[in-house]
Design goal:
Length: 150
C-alpha cells in the first residue's frame, strides 16, 4: 500500500471511528434522548453566555429555521432554555438548562480524555507537529469547501 492510500484510509477511518465513539460515549444514560447533532448544538451554546439564534446558527453553519426546529426539541427535552431579549423582543436567546449543562460537561470531558489519550507520551515537539498536521487537514477542508470559513 502506498503512503497516499494509507493516509487516506487512516483519515477516513479515524473520522468514522471518532463520530461513532462520540455517539456511543455520549448518547447514553441520562442523555440517551438526544442525537450527536443535538450534542453539538449544546456544545455550541456552551456554558458561559446566552446566545442569540442568529449567532448560533452561523456558528453551526445552518439556517435559523433549521436551528429553530432543533432548539424546539431540545427545549422540550429540558436541555435548553429560550428567552426573549430585553432590548429587542424579536431576538430569541438560548442558554443551557441544568440538564443541558450536565450534557455539555460530559461532552467536554469526552473531548478532553480523547486529547489526553492521543497526546500521552508525546513530547512538546511531537505535539506541535501533530497540531501542524491537523491544521493542514483543516486548511484543506476549508479550501475545498469555502462555505465552512464563513
Amino acid at each position: 500500500m502506498d503512503s497516499n492510500t494509507a493516509v487516506n484510509e487512516l483519515l477516513v477511518g479515524l473520522f468514522d471511528d471518532i463520530i461513532d465513539l462520540e455517539e456511543r460515549a455520549l448518547i447514553k444514560g441520562e442523555f440517551k434522548d438526544i442525537s450527536k447533532n443535538d450534542m453539538h448544538i449544546i456544545d455550541a451554546i456552551g456554558n458561559s453566555e446566552i446566545k442569540n439564534m442568529s449567532t448560533l446558527a452561523k456558528k453551526l453553519r445552518v439556517t435559523v429555521g433549521t436551528l429553530t426546529i432543533a432548539i424546539n426539541n431540545l427545549v422540550k427535552k429540558g436541555y435548553v432554555e429560550r428567552l426573549r431579549s430585553k432590548e429587542d423582543k424579536r431576538v430569541v436567546l438560548v442558554s443551557l438548562s441544568e440538564k443541558g449543562q450536565r450534557a455539555f460537561n460530559s461532552h467536554s470531558m469526552f473531548h478532553l480524555e480523547m486529547v489526553k489519550c492521543i497526546t500521552k507520551g508525546l513530547n512538546k515537539g511531537q505535539v506541535e507537529d501533530l497540531i501542524q498536521m491537523l491544521k493542514k487537514i483543516q486548511f484543506f477542508i476549508g479550501a475545498y469547501n469555502p462555505d465552512l470559513n464563513k
